[in-house]
Amino acid sequence: MKPHTQASSFATPLPHVPFFRATASSRAAPAQSLHAAAANEFRCIWTAKRRRVHLSVRHSTRVAADLNPGGSNGDESRPRSSRRGVLMAPFLAAGASILLAAVARAEDKVVESAPTAPKLEETKKEEEEEVITSRIYDAAVIGEPLAIGKEKGKVWEKLMNARVVYLGEAEQVPVRDDRELELEIVKNLHRRCSEKEKKLSLALEAFPSNLQEPLNQYMDKKIDGDTLKSYTLHWPPQRWQEYEPILSYCRETGIRLVACGTPLKILRTVQAEGIRGLTKAERKLYAPPAGSGFVSGFTSISRRSSVDSTQNLSIPFGPSSYLSAQAKVVEEYSMSQVILQNVVDGGATGMLIVVTGASHVTYGSRGTGVPARISGKIQKKNQVVILLDPERQFIRREGEVPVADFLWYSAARPCSRNCFDRAEIARVMNAAGQRRDALPQDLQKGIDLGLVSPEVLQNFFDLEQYPLISELTHRFQGFRERLLADPKFLHRLAIEEAISITTTLLAQYEKRKENFFQELDYVITDTVRGSVVDFFTVWLPAPTLSFLSYADEMKAPDNIGSLMGLLGSIPDNAFQKNPAGINWNLNHRIASVVFGGLKLASVGFISSIGAVASSNSLYGIRKFLNPAVVTEQRNIRSPILKTAVIYACFLGISANLRYQIIAGIVEHRISEQFASQTFFVNMLSFVARTVNSYWGTQQWIDLARSTGLQVRKTESPTSDSSNGAAILCNETEEATIDEIEK
């Protein structure tokens, strides 16, 4: 560092610079003083002429020597060094002060930067929390629900202004993603409530109200999770695992847990005997008072949405349904009383999140559930209803009540449900360069209803890249529905047909041997008929993806709907395992065998008529074109109707039982035991189907021969015997002539 000094003019008088000398210098002679003064004056002029003053280690050493009177040559160097030290002192002081100030500021920055690191981390965490982890739809708008993209701040603002937030979860088929969404919403609301110093509570319908004391002990950490789990033995095994994360989070963060469910004893009594089965004290606590409009479970149509009122018109309402309605009334009333009490306890700024079934909160304060029961004491704007992962989205028309305020979907959940983002659909169509008008009618209808997922639409565009498949998907709805559900459907069909044709020809040759080419008409007929049957055995049970089923359900007669419900209640095969919540008895499994046999019999009857009729038609054409060749054929033509009936019975009994065993035991039960060994499972299925086709073909040949459907012409025995006698006579006559000649 080189500080600069401004040089003064020679005409300007030099300022007097005082300095202190040592004691020895003060006692010097007057001559020496004059000499020193002259020297001082000379040195001052010399210093003024200098434009720069250089600070160096040598100068510092000289200054230090001036301060040390015992040093060598002290008397000679002291005046010069002292003057330089005095001149440089202001600059050194200024530099030192600047350095000290810089060091002090650096220390302050270090001290302040330490607490800013957590703030940066908190900011990053907040940004991570704002990342879209779910899909939200505004269900209060007119028309179809509106997807909310980056404007989620308005959603959270509306939730923060509410006193009660209802989270309606799936009831019939519980979804694990609902618990993840609940935890996500609770975390975000807790963070925002903490910033505004609002008290947050969480009410769970899963816990009956008589378990409030164990919940309090769990919150106070007097009992652990295993002890609390012992109070929920009536839950399914997996339910505790789903609720455990949100319970642990509330315990760690201090969110108060509220048990708002109906006690099991009360609920079972009402389900068995109705409200009148309760005692007077129980009725006062858990049943709504008479005249409230909610006692019987039937409310006026004016308070219910038109969509809701038309959904259950065809459902019979028997005594069990009446008791179920009463149980629902008791559940909602007891829940509303607990909610009201906790809203009062939470104060004017408190917030309560209620996790309950979706049926208890649909249509909000204008429905018949919990929000409607407390709407007289809590304003409508203070209640917000959120449905978690609803299976359907309804298009709201003007004058209809919205089903909820928001529809909340988990982003981690694959798009397997029937409501999808229209913006994503538009993105897929734009990427493929397709227009909506160019799509088949069922796809257009499915997009309008919100049934087509982006993945399915992308699969459809991928299939259009192949000319043959594109033609099939556009012209035939059946192929389109099966290819969209299973893009490898044609591969499976080709493999099954290859197995069928190969094994049929091998079995035909093994059974007919030297007559194989003489009975070629029978071989071709059986092969074609078997191929048609195998085609339908793959076609009928193949999964389909239809987008018109929901629209057709509204137009279908009641008797057809009842028949479809009956057929849907039986298993696919007699050996299928019971799924969760369904218990098939022996009658259901027998019905499965009978229904499967009827399907195969109908397929066999129709395919046999077509195959035999085609064969006979070809035979007639050959006879017309070349009568000589046809007269040499010794195969008897098969009767069309008789062959169709026998073949239908054969498929309905023999083939049906074989398919039941293969599908139920080999491909269902045994394959599940070796699910990790994919190659072994595929080989087992291939071998089983190959043996089935080969053995079935041989069985049919034996049956057709024994019933006279496939026989050959033979010469009459009379003509054969007469010819033999004539030959014998000729031989005897020739022998007699030879003897005479001898």
Automatic annotation (TrEMBL):
Superkingdom of origin organism: Eukaryota
InterPro entries: Cofac_haem-bd_dom (IPR007314), RETICULATA-related (IPR021825)
Major place of residence: plastid
Pfam name, any one: Cofac_haem_bdg
Any one Gene Ontology cellular component term annotated for this protein: chloroplast membrane
Domain Haem-binding uptake Tiki superfamily ChaN: 155-374
Topology versus the membrane: Multi-pass membrane protein
UniProt keyword annotation of Transit peptide present: yes
Compartment annotation: Plastid, Chloroplast membrane
Keywords linked to the UniProt accession: Chloroplast, Membrane, Plastid, Transit peptide, Transmembrane, Transmembrane helix
Family: Belongs to the RETICULATA family.
Descriptive protein name: Haem-binding uptake Tiki superfamily ChaN domain-containing protein
Organism from which the protein derives: Phaseolus coccineus (Scarlet runner bean)
Higher taxonomy: Eukaryota, Viridiplantae, Streptophyta, Embryophyta, Tracheophyta
